[in-house]
């Protein structure tokens, strides 16, 4: 339920709506605009836009245009300067950097084919609003990531419930919230099987998610004409930009290595500002882990540890998927062709994720430090 929809606002919905979160969709934009094709303004400006839905759509369209323009010739044909209008119009919408982010690629990039139909697996009633080369594999990649975000919703709702329960010393409600969080994380892990051809992902899709920070293919960054005469560097779209796992880590008191923390905190710059504020609010709340430790309640400790274990298992699943779609695909790499568009694997990203991290060492590190969060008996 969204604020202002005519329904009575509950304490939970009030807590979520402050950060532009939905009881039904979590961090996903509940009803993304799809546009009507009239995108031929002489100069792009956010002053004509009204409401966050239009801002999200503007950023979605412009960031997809930018990625297509930058990477249409692969690594060999990268440019150093973007056109003026997209750069000027792209800096402000939704408070995000001028590049395709997780918020664009997934949160605001979905629609129902039948407006009255459901948005449940196996995605038959869902489509991306805007796409890039990759065909059905790209569609599957976007929509299954959408479903993971959707499966996280009960866990997101459990966060303010847990914090309120800690403050009220309501152990029964806290136990229920932790049970709900563990169940939600398990549901997310069950969806982490993409309907994607690994060769297409590695050779075609991956480059269009790449940024121009920590990327040898564009070592100097990109000049945004009309914005700055100096090159600017931004990371590409990454699962690390999803607010969901940041929020869960913050609630559970998980502390990652210094290097991983620095990268994750940098990824927060690519989240919509209200979502970043949600993480910060959790960080200011009383410590859940300390509360469980001090309570001496074996039932709370077990529920807390179920959350930690579920999150570590989720991250192990992610490692397995990355192995399949990057390491195994790399071993078989050649050219992949989709819809007449042929792609070569991006050599500059062989050891890195699209966000610029050293992907396997990063993923294993955050998985292991998650496990370290378990409370021993």
From TrEMBL:
GO terms for cellular component: cytoplasm. The keyword Ribosomal protein does not apply. GO terms for biological process: 'de novo' NAD+ biosynthetic process from L-tryptophan; immune system process; L-tryptophan catabolic process to kynurenine. The keyword Heme applies. Keywords: Dioxygenase, Heme, Immunity, Iron, Metal-binding, Oxidoreductase, Tryptophan catabolism. Gene3D superfamilies: 1.20.58.480. It comes from the Eukaryota. Heme b binds at residue 318. GO terms for molecular function: heme binding; indoleamine 2,3-dioxygenase activity; L-tryptophan 2,3-dioxygenase activity; metal ion binding. Belongs to the indoleamine 2,3-dioxygenase family. This is Indoleamine 2,3-dioxygenase 2. It comes from Anas platyrhynchos platyrhynchos (Northern mallard).
């Amino acid at each position: 339920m969204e604020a202002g929809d005519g329904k009575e606002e509950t304490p939970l919905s009030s807590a979520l709506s402050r950060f532009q979160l939905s009881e039904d969709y979590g961090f996903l934009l509940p009803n993304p605009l799809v546009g009507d094709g009239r995108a031929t303004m002489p100069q792009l400006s956010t002053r004509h836009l009204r409401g966050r839905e239009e801002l999200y759509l503007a950023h979605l369209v412009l960031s997809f245009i930018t990625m297509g323009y930058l990477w249409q010739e692969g690594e060999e044909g990268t440019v150093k300067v973007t056109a003026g209008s997209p750069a000027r119009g792209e800096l402000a919408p939704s408070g995000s950097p001028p590049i395709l982010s997780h918020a664009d690629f997934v949160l605001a990039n979905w629609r129902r084919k039948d407006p009255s139909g459901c948005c449940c697996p196996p995605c038959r009633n869902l489509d991306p609003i805007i796409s890039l080369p990759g065909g059905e594999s790209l569609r599957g990649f976007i929509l299954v990531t959408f479903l993971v975000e959707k499966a996280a919703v009960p866990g997101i709702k459990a966060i303010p419930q847990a914090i309120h329960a800690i403050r009220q010393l309501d152990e029964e409600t806290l136990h229920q919230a932790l049970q709900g969080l563990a169940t939600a994380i398990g549901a997310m892990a069950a969806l982490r099987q993409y309907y994607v051809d690994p060769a297409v992902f590695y050779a075609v899709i991956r480059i269009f998610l790449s940024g121009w920070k920590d990327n040898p293919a564009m070592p100097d960054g990109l000049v945004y004409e009309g914005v700055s005469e100096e090159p600017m560097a931004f990371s590409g779209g990454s699962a690390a930009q999803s607010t969901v796992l940041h929020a869960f880590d913050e609630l559970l008191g998980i502390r990652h290595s210094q290097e991983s923390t620095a990268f994750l905190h940098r990824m927060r710059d690519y989240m919509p500002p209200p979502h970043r504020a949600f993480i910060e609010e959790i960080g200011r709340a009383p410590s859940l882990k300390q509360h469980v430790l001090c309570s001496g309640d074996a039932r709370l400790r077990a529920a807390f540890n179920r959350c930690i274990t579920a999150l570590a298992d989720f991250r192990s699943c992610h490692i397995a998927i990355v192995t399949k779609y990057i390491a195994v695909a790399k071993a078989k790499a050649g050219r992949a062709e989709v819809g007449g568009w042929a792609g070569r694997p991006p050599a500059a990203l062989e050891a890195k994720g699209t966000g610029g991290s050293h992907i396997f060492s990063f993923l294993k590190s955050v998985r292991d430090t998650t496990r370290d969060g378990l409370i021993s008996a």
